[in-house]
Structure formats: C-alpha cells, structure tokens
Amino acid sequence: MTRFTVNGQPVHYRLDPATPLLWALRDASNLTGTKYGCGVGQCGACTVHVDGVAQRSCQLPIGGIEGSFVTTIEALSRDRGHPVQQAWVAESVPQCGYCQSGMIMAASALLERNRNPSDAEIDAAITNICRCGTYPRIRRAIRRAAAVLRGAETIAAAPPPGIDPADAARAVPALTPPRR
After folding, report:
1. Which homologous superfamily is 83-150 in?
2. pTM of the predicted model, to two decimals?
3. What order of strands is seen across the sheet that includes strand 2-6?
4. Alpha helices per DSSP H over 24-82
5. Domain 2-76 is of which CATH architecture?
6. Which residues partner with 71 through β-bridges?
7. What's the mean pLDDT when you consider all of the chain?
8. What is the pLDDT of residues 82-107, one digit of tens each?
9. Cβ–Cβ under 8 Å, residues 20 and 63
10. Which among 37, 35, 29, 31 has a CA at the least distance from the CA of 13?
11. Closest CA to 109 of 48, 43, 40
C-alpha cells in the first residue's frame, strides 16, 4: 500500500507502486481534472503539485511519492478564486481547454516561488504544450496573476463552477409543433 496526502486528505492506494500517479488520481480517486495527454511526460496536461513542485503525474510512480502532499486542480481553489484561475478567465486563455488544468498548475507553482517572473522565466517554467497555440494569452495571464499576487492589481471573481442544480433540474416547456 502506498500512502500520501491528496488535496488535504490522507489516502492509501492498494495499487502496484509502479502505477503512475495520474491513473491513481483519475481511476482510484475520481479526480478527473488532471488530464491524460501524451503519457510520456511531454505535454504537461497531467501536471499536479507534489510537495509544492509542478510534476507530470503520468511519469510519477505512486511508490516514489510515499508521504508526499499532492495537490490537483480540484483543490487549487474550490471557487475558482485563485489568481491564476481568475487571470485565465480575464485573459480568455482557454480555447479547446484540454491543457488548461495542467497549465494552471504549472503557472501557480511558478508564481509560488517567483511573484514577478520575466518572460524568459515564464517560458522556462511553463513547458506544457497548448495545441491551440494560446501562448501569448497564457503569458499575459501569468503576468496578470503575478500582479494580483503582488497586490498591484485585482480581478473580479471568476464565475462559479458548473450549473446550479436547481437550473439543471427545471423542466423545459414542451415545444408547440409549427402550424401547417
């Protein structure tokens, strides 16, 4: 059994210690915000924080992180209030959106250690692949989130996640067929 903490909760997985963290998170813990992209550690869609450091979870065996603290996109901010998430929305970063959770996790790890990164430092730290090519917006969003973290700027809160269950459960009125 492998034991560590995921999003503040102690877990122990009865999985082969060679199981990649990505699959333990997605399949055993149902934390599907961490995405499978390439499976070889190149794209970064699976990025999570392990002890505060951005890591590609598809290449990280759970047996190697015994006793560690893992944070996924689900726990970065429950209300999407993290400055990186707010800046992502304000700068209209997402296009297809698949790489976004990994990008956000990589960016938030960078800003935890450097609240005023240069463009070169951003480029060196964010090696995730965005197939849609939104890199200029990503860089702007990271610079904006850094300004928020330094107290130099504020951003209105991002919209709440999902659809209100009451709205989803409302009955849709029947359509009247057209007259002929």
Report:
1. [2Fe-2S]-binding domain (1.10.150.120)
2. 0.86
3. 9-13, 2-6, 69-71, 47-50, 53-56
4. 73-76
5. Roll (3.10)
6. 49
7. 89
8. 999 999 999 999 988 899 999 999 99
9. no
10. 29
11. 48
Where are the domains positioned within the chain?
Answer: 2-76, 83-150
Handedness of CA 16, 25, 112, 123 (dihedral sign): positive
Contact assessment for residue 113 and residue 51, using Cβ atoms and an 8 Å cutoff: no
The band of 68, judged by pLDDT with boundaries at 50, 70 and 90, is very high
- Dihedral pair phi/psi, residue 22, rounded to 5°: -50, -45
What residue type is 3 in one-letter code? R
Torsion angles phi and psi, residue 106, rounded to 5: -65, -45
Confidence of residue 172 (pLDDT cuts 50, 70, 90): very low
Strand partners, 50: 53, 70
- Residue pair 129/163 in contact (Cβ under 8 Å)? The answer is no
Contact (CB, 8 A) for 83 and 148: yes
Place of tokens 């060679």: 18
Angle in degrees, CA 57, 61, 67, rounded to 5:
95
